[in-house]
């Protein structure tokens, strides 16, 4: 490798890892409160409530998944030793998140369609 290669100082990597750990803890605490709130929300009808609850749980699950992936990525970036590693991590992260986003979007669409169908069936009964 070249002598002119940019290296991230160890002290900066340590500081970045600590910052990511603290931020992860804060988000985990927030997500616990959000889960409690979502669990306590009541709908006015059983069908709407079931659809809304399912959608809320999916969205919360996706948020947790995406936040976890972002923190994992941040931790890896904090430990990166050179630009080549940083670029590979960025590329891998973007590829994985775009794939996950596509799957999440499809699942949300399917759930919304099912909830609308269930409410329609209940209204016609």
Automatic annotation (TrEMBL):
It comes from the Bacteria. Residues 28-124 form the Phasin domain. InterPro entries: Phasin (IPR018968), Phasin_subfam-2 (IPR010234). This is Phasin.
